[in-house]
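Section 5.1 Outputs to date
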Amino acid sequence: MDHLPQSETPATPSRRQFLKTSAAVAGSVLAADLVIPQVHAAGSDLIGVGLIGCGSPRGGRGRGAAQNCVNAGPNVKLVAMGDLFPDHLAFTRNVLKSLGPDKVDVPEDRCFVGFDAYEKVLACKEVQVVILTTPPHFRPLHLQAAVAAGKHIFCEKPVAVDAAGVRSVLKSSEEARKKNLSLVSGLCWRYDKGMRETFQRLHDGAVGQYVALQCTYNTGGLWVIPRQPGWSDVEWQIRNWLYFTWLSGDHICEQHIHSLDKMAWAMRDEYPLRAVGSGGRQVRTAAEYGNIFDHHNVVFEYANGLKVFSSCRQQDGCAKDVTDHVMGTEGTCDVMKFTIRGRHPWKYKPDSQDPGMYQNEHNELIASIRAGKPINNGDYMAKSTLMAIMGRMATYTGQVITWEQALNSKEDLGPRPVEFGPYAVAPVALPGITKFF
């Protein structure tokens, strides 16, 4: 699921523009014995793609990723689909058919619905690559199962909603490395050509020694799907997964992670020692907005005393701001404008042939499979997710939270197992009252 505002949307067509927002799918028990297909495909071999998480008519994060994946090279085809909800799968299947039979061939017997849909997609011998675009709560389980099945993976951000999930993802990514599987993250700015050149210049010292970093993701509200008669608590929450911490991790994780990941990238994937912050729920207070906050402000501190000043907000009628800045002893960088001012001034010149970061992710994934040279983004995608969770822990509790506390937290969100039925919404966090655990 992604919600890039206009100021952060590249000019080239994107999977978000194809049909906006995210998918809803769920998981239960890991299959003990799954078919393990070949993990490498020669240049002329068909690469079959399985989509796990299709999305609703309101938005389809999975649909956009599937489109990018099948367009990432010749002889790449969507061959299987899975989702918790049959209406989501039917809608997405119908939309993707417009790409043509050479790109989409998903017969009825490779369409799967229900909590075990992900297992059935992974068991398809026709599938070599899976796209994981479910609500983030299910990402650790699905990633673990995909690696066990020997599939190459595109894994949407964030990759977890709690520390237990992050620890699971770190283990799965290491296992993927051992199996020579590609694991590409949906932290899409890492695949933007202008951003890559900007960060290379920062790493080469274009602004001198860093003094401070700042990132802001202030935007408006998002979609809500009204509860329908007959929906259980769990079904209603999954269909509106953005607004429940156990499903999304809160918007500091689900959306602001893009900004935090850029800060980590600027720091050469070093992560902060501690975080302190404030946040709350001022405007989105109705029941349909679950239990997440509508604003977070966090200061992350590094070992050398350097600070990252982070802010995110989802409130209608307010000024929007999606910017990132790196301040140094010899200049400043406006990250989103690919511009450096100071002793070494520079501005990126766009490449007219660049298909854009969303397509680049999948181009590089498919190329890595063809070449037998796997990509593994597992470490930074897990740790940037933990950075966002650490920030949420700080705002929810009002306490200083260290990296080690966050990583080793006993927090484990959501029902076990996940199944349709009653599930009370957890209370909204109250800083100073809500406890860290």
